[in-house]
Amino acid sequence: MSNRELIVLGTSSAVPTRARNHNGYFLRWDDQGFLFDPGEGTQRQMRLAGVSAHDVTTICVTHFHGDHCLGLPGVIQRIARDGVPHEVRALYPASGEDYWLRLRHATAFADTSKVTPHPVEGEVTTLRSAGLTLTARPLSHPVDAYGYRLDEPSGRRMIPAELARYGISGAQVGELQREGRLGAVTLEQVSEPRRGQSMAFVMDTRLCDGVHALAEGVDLLVIESTFLTPEAALAHEYGHLTAAQAGQVAAEAGVRKLVLTHFSERYGHDDERRFAEEAAKAYAGDIVVARDLMRVPVPKRRNPATGPSRP
């Protein structure tokens, strides 16, 4: 059974609050785990959320402001301490190599060779692994910042009734999938298109081409909405988005589910309704205003008969 969900570890921006930890997001995607922007306190939040160091297969850092990376030393030391046996890829802006090395070796501990660096630079960086494509694109922030997108390739779903009609079962199904036909029966006769699922992670940025390219058509968009519209000028000055802009991006990109997060400490839980209302002025789809330790499932696959639909 598919197990795909976002576990929110922290939702605050530069300053944590009593209710919101610094950034941190764990995407569980079947047997892979993507840890995005581990801010200060992420190791503790992982324990509270039931996320193990063994669950992490990839770490993605958008940029080297503290609320997006100060949790790295603890997470990496936990990977080492717990003896994680598999490779853990770490993606981060190449221009921040010095910061990566400082965080990677922040204290004395029994190290691990399992964490492998993958610095990203240029307009598009792509990594492929286990049937998934992970893409990084530049954003617009005072320091080099990248957003990330995860894509599953499209495929075909077998139709049990059609398999039964042609008397195909057991090992024959696998042969048909591999070869594209079994005798006179083609794969297209007993299957239907299955659209691959996707998600995008967009943090600290002004509106730019990278934001729109990352968000285009994704099932799940996790995006910063640091400010509300009255602070739009401040948002632009510091390289951030408002909730209204996040909603506009989601609407134009045909996003299926929108997760708003990375809130300025000036806002409390009583303001959550305002964030949702601002985003909803442009976006009519499913809006989630993130809270720490919340779990957000990746939307179920679209019905292939109806195809892609924009909210």
UniProtKB/TrEMBL annotation:
Class of this enzyme: hydrolase
Record EC number: 3.1.26.11
Keyword Transcription regulation set for record: no
SMART domains on file: Lactamase_B
Catalysis performed (reactions): Endonucleolytic cleavage of RNA, removing extra 3' nucleotides from tRNA precursor, generating 3' termini of tRNAs. A 3'-hydroxy group is left at the tRNA terminus and a 5'-phosphoryl group is left at the trailer molecule
UniProt cross-references to CDD domains, sorted A to Z: RNaseZ_ZiPD-like_MBL-fold
Annotated positions binding Zn(2+) 2: D67, H68, D204, H262
Residues at which Zn(2+) 1 binds: H63, H65, H141, D204
Keywords (A to Z) from UniProt: Endonuclease, Hydrolase, Metal-binding, Nuclease, tRNA processing, Zinc
Pfam families given in the database record: Lactamase_B, Lactamase_B_2
Cofactor note: Binds 2 Zn(2+) ions.
Cofactor: Zn(2+)
Similarity section: Belongs to the RNase Z family.
Biological function: Zinc phosphodiesterase, which displays some tRNA 3'-processing endonuclease activity. Probably involved in tRNA maturation, by removing a 3'-trailer from precursor tRNA.
Subunit relationships: Homodimer.
Protein name, as recorded: Ribonuclease Z
Organism: Herbidospora galbida
